[in-house]
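User: Here's a structure from my thesis project, written as structure tokens. My advisor, Dr. K., wants to see whether a designed sequence matches the one we expressed. Can you design one independently, without my sequence as a hint?
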């Protein structure tokens, strides 16, 4: 008996003449606004100056958009080499979350150096909002009927229009709702990070030293993404192809490296047992 049978109503929320409002854009806007609110509250709790997050947000959004698109275009260059101007047509789709994370992080590095703030202090209050934004943004994949997984007969499944199915799966109707898997995983990660960032030790110090929240995000998110990526039918391949069954999935490789880096960083931080330093101190 089906537990959940999902079918997208389509990518458009409303269309008024030349004006079209898409679900994906609305969800991204919602994620940005909620992220601004959450991170601003966390920044205040952690002693950062008022307005830091709102000042930083436009840089993060710009860096994330550029990084997400550039990452995708690099690994799908065969698609764009004939008409490279299409690489700038981001509204047609084609972005990657790891590229967004890299671009956004570089924006934070630049801002931290400019304002003489701690990079890790900023990342620790930003990444819970990133997890929340990812949980919301994945529903954009649902409305676009994209980023779905292998065919499935499980009680929970996603119907994909024929036009959106890979050629090898045209006769299949039901697929893994990988957007839902990652949305639930990211929401759980958001709750975990919020619980941890608010906790203090008995002596009044924060439970985790500076950078601890960032390391946990890298570890936990990457473990979930590694598993979910193995189900998807639209991977970016470092080499090989899905059709030839020799695709080295770029997202799995990056997730593995991030998970290892997060685990190593967390172990190092906990071994030092240092309290959270002043986030406004100048960088030496």
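Assistant: Designed independently from the structure alone:
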């Amino acid at each position: 008996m089906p537990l959940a049978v999902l079918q997208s109503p389509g990518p458009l929320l409303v269309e008024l003449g030349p004006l079209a409002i898409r679900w994906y854009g609305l969800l991204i806007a919602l994620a940005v606004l909620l992220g601004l609110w959450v991170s601003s509250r966390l920044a205040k709790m952690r002693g950062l100056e008022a307005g830091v997050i709102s000042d930083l947000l436009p840089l993060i959004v710009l860096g994330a958009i550029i990084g997400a698109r550039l990452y995708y275009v690099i690994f799908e260059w065969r698609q764009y080499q004939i008409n490279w101007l299409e690489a700038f047509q981001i509204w047609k789709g084609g972005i990657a979350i790891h590229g967004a994370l890299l671009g956004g992080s570089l924006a934070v590095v630049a801002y931290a150096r400019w304002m003489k703030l701690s990079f890790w202090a900023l990342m620790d209050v930003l990444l819970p909002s990133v997890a929340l934004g990812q949980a919301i943004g994945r529903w954009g994949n649902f409305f676009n009927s994209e980023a779905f997984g292998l065919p499935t007969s499980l009680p929970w499944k996603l119907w994909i229009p024929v036009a959106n199915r890979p050629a090898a799966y045209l006769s299949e109707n039901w697929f893994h709702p990988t957007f839902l898997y990652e949305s639930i995983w990211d929401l759980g990660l958001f709750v975990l990070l919020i619980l941890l960032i608010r906790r203090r030790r008995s002596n009044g110090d924060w439970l985790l030293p500076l950078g601890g929240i960032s390391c946990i995000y890298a570890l936990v998110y990457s473990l979930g993404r590694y598993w979910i990526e193995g189900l998807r039918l639209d991977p970016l391949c470092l080499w090989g192809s899905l059709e030839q069954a020799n695709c080295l999935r770029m997202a799995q490789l990056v997730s593995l490296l991030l998970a290892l880096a997060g685990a190593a960083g967390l172990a190092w931080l906990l071994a030092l047992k240092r309290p959270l330093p002043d986030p406004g101190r100048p960088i030496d």
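When you compare it with your expressed construct, this may help: The radius of gyration is 20 Å.
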